[in-house]
Amino acid sequence: MRLKKAERKQVRLKYGGHCAYCGVLLGDRWHADHPEPVIRVSDERVAEQAKDHNLDNMMPACAPCNISKGRQTLEG
User: Is 17 contained in some domain?
Assistant: First the structure.
């Protein structure tokens, strides 16, 4: 599921345009990360997983932070 432009703006503004993890000022290329991971599946669990794909479960992240976090939770 892709975010609409207005939704991406909302996510980015949660931390004033900075990465939620390291605090770097985000440029044009940044990731909308799920602190509670959403793992894409192709079976009956799709609807269950989709509930975690919402703006409350998204934080702005620079690419290096999001890539290093991967599918881990924040605690992980």
Answer: yes
